[in-house]
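Checklist before submission:
- one chain only
- standard amino acids only
- sequence pasted in full

Submission:
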Amino acid sequence: MNFSSKLLEDAVAEFAKLPGVGQKTALRLVLHLLNRDKDEVQRFSDSVSKLRNQIQFCSICHNIADQPVCMICSSHKRDHSLVCVVEDTRDVMAIENTNQYNGVYHVLGGLISPMDGIGPADLEVDSLVERLKDNHVKEVIFALSATMEGDTTIFYLHKKLKQFNINISTIARGIAFGGELEYVDEITLGRSIVTRVPYENSLSG
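Returned file contents:
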């Protein structure tokens, strides 16, 4: 692709680094910004800069937050005895959109995947174990994608958490194997949370 401006070329190259954005889409986005008011483009630039420089991760659940403790973990209206274990922030958002869950979360930051070199030490597993030591948590729900990596992670976590006197459940599999949680429709996901089953029962399926 030939560019008449080095500034244009550099901007397109940066946008093209975004997932799912090719050069043609990147060019279209950059040209769109060029047609907007300078103040509007400045607000866009400032929001991205603030996102990168000021974003925090909740010290309790590791979800993305504006403060050291996220709004969910600091809320007195949530059931803190119920912890839903998810892969990342996108899954928290998906479950919240169902309006079927009133507990809190624990964001692992990924899934165990030996093929990708990701092991338990790369995830927020130790902090989950620490959360359970004060005997306040009564149930842990595994809400991980129905993939080989998700099942491997659940199996590992179950072994780690068996020492605690808590209920361990997993969302009902109205979700096809291989399905990513963030892409499941809200009705199916909400029903899967409500009709969760003890993890041991899911093994026989």
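Reviewer check: The radius of gyration is 21 Å.
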